[in-house]
Amino acid sequence: MITALNMTVPLKQDPESLAKLQKLKDDFADHIQPLIDAALRKSGIVHFARVLVVHDRFIQVLTEFDGDSKEYTEFFRREIPEVFERIFDLAEGTPGWDHLNNQDTFFQASQRLNIAALGRSEDGRADQGWLYDNFGKTVREIEEALVQSSGSTGTGGGGTGGGSTDSSALTAAAAAFAAASAAFTAAANARSGT
Amino acid sequence: MPVDTNDLQGMVLGNIRYPLVRRLIFSMSDPGGAEGHARALQRFVTKLRPLILFGTNARTEARGWVANISFAHGALKAVKPDICGELESAFLKPPDPEGLGDAGASAPANWWEKQFRGEDVSCFVHLHAVDDAQLEAATAEVLSEARGAGLAELIPRASGERLDGRFLGRGPAGGARLHFGYVDGLSNAKIAWNAAPNPERPVDFRSVVLGYYDDDFPCAPARDPAAEFVRDSSYLVFRWVYQDVATFERFLTATGPKLFPALPARLAREMLAAKIMGRWRDGAPLIRSPQVPAAGRENEEISFAGDLNGLLCPVSSHIRVMNPREQPLFGLARTTGIPKVVRRGMPYGPALKGEKDDGLDRGILGMFVCASIREQFIRLAGWGARNNFSNVFPAHGRDQDALIGNRSVAGATRTFTIPMGRTGGGTVRDLPDFIRTKATQYLLMPSGRTLTRLFPLD
């Protein structure tokens, strides 16, 4: 079960807040991205993540991950509170971080700011909308397949990430995994008659 | 700030030591709006208060029957809307079936035998009595007061029967038996009140009562004045669970000998029952006694550290999913930890004789005491529905608790893996549903002080 989080935070438009937003954008690559990256790697369940600023009107935190959002939000509140504090400090119509920084109010705020995608969830979840998922595999399954194919050591869903697998082996593993997935999809389609 | 345990209702302190329990459920009877509802509850609680057991869960012969009381969202919203709005968001909404794994026949549309909706509930009165005569007398008295106050009883069964719990009998070492034949209460750890958790009392009180927020024990409300208002109160999750004993026993008979062909048939089915629970039905943990039942060893400490592959105790066995102890956690669970709830359950319905379904309703009236419904109860229920919190499980994370998993959950497997050992093992691929959720209700069980603030004494 892969879940999409499309957290969309409206931004304050006063000059001071816009200046803070610019500072956040300037700081992101060197100071914020590493913190988020470390938390994502530790989670072991996140497929993709990115942070967007949309015309200085919204910040979007977009991720796709295994599981559901209840535990997910609490994990990131505990792991990278300083990042969310900076984001919510810029948010329009949201209480201050002192108020938000607890399990229940942070969960409520993240749910309120999460925008469901258009369409229908393929597993029937009302709050999700449609999410195309080519593999239907968890991050752990993909990592294990890569490790098996390459015979190398993966991050194991909680390692410090990056750099432990040489690029040629990873490329070969990725190709092997893609081939295996294609075969799996073909077999599944054959079974379902599609 | 110390917890005044004398101010806690008995159910929070422990299982109340009476053999019979009845859950009386009430709603507002007249269209009086929130003000009318609040007045009715004020009248009712004023009358009932002398009968509410505080400060002990012990049997007190001098008092006869005793009661505890808890309130649903609708009642608290009517009485104290400002405080109610600060309570945990999960409490303020109907239970989320997706988070609880309540799909298929366990879906909320089927709850309460379709006699009413959870949103209709105002309060529960939990009656505890020594015998049926006392229970009926207690019921008559409470119903009289409720009617006089303007509350109506909700009957949760199409048959018109109430929800009564009673012990089924004792196991070999004296522990109460449940319908599936297991001895009850062995994994229910004691609470360390006003002290650091220790081996004797490993549960931190902050996971049981409200008003002591920190990141290790998150709860709502998190801050004063609402936190002060409800301090030492608890959330209570009522879970009415049907247990399909006939399916369970037939499964043991049909599958046990196939998995453990080296064992006599009777022991093979007991071995399978033990693998499903993680304990023999006499209570002895598989980790301590992997080959045969061992009455008298049920209270021994257990650890899964030396059994990470589940050779002795399968990783999806019930007690191991509900409390994996030192088993390494994966992903988010490494940060959020093992959720703990305190159980106060009692079986209901007659014991099944043999393996043929007699069509009677039986199961457990589960009560789970916690400080955070979402972080404790829902998260644990989610672990039962999806074994994805540790690397010991398959990477797809879609296996379930072998006993309580709901196989209708989207994507769930029906697989139960028992690693091959000396006497057998194998993979079950058609694991049946053994339970069905018949209702879930979120309640607040107030401390004495909170009760007085909600309903001032005359």
Question: Would you give an account of this structure?
Answer:
The complex is a heterodimer of chains A (194) and B (458). Chain A has helices at residues 15-43, 69-79, 81-89, 97-100, 103-113, 139-150, 167-192; strands at 2-10, 46-54, 58-66. With 194 residues, chain A is an alpha+beta fold. In chain A, α1 runs antiparallel to α3 and α6 (139-150) crosses α7. Chain A has seven helices and three strands; from the N terminus they run βαββαααααα. Chain A has a three-stranded antiparallel beta sheet with strand order 1-3-2. Mean pLDDT of chain A is 83; it is low at 154-170. Chain A is globular and about 50 Å long. Chain B has helices at 10-13, 33-48, 73-79, 81-84, 97-100, 132-149, 226-229, 245-259, 265-277, 318-322, 332-336, 373-385, 448-454, and strands at 20-28, 66-71, 123-129, 151-154, 163-166, 191-192, 203-204, 234-243, 342-343, 346-348, 363-370, 416-418, 426-428, 435-445. In chain B, strands 1, 2, 3, 4 and 5 form a five-stranded antiparallel beta sheet that branches. In chain B, β12 and β13 (426-428) form a beta hairpin. In chain B, α2 packs across α3 and α2 runs antiparallel to α6. The longest helix of chain B is centred in the N-terminal third of the chain and has 18 residues, at 132-149. Classes of the chains: A alpha+beta (194), B alpha+beta (458). At the A-B interface, α2, α5 and α6 of A face α11 and α12 of B.
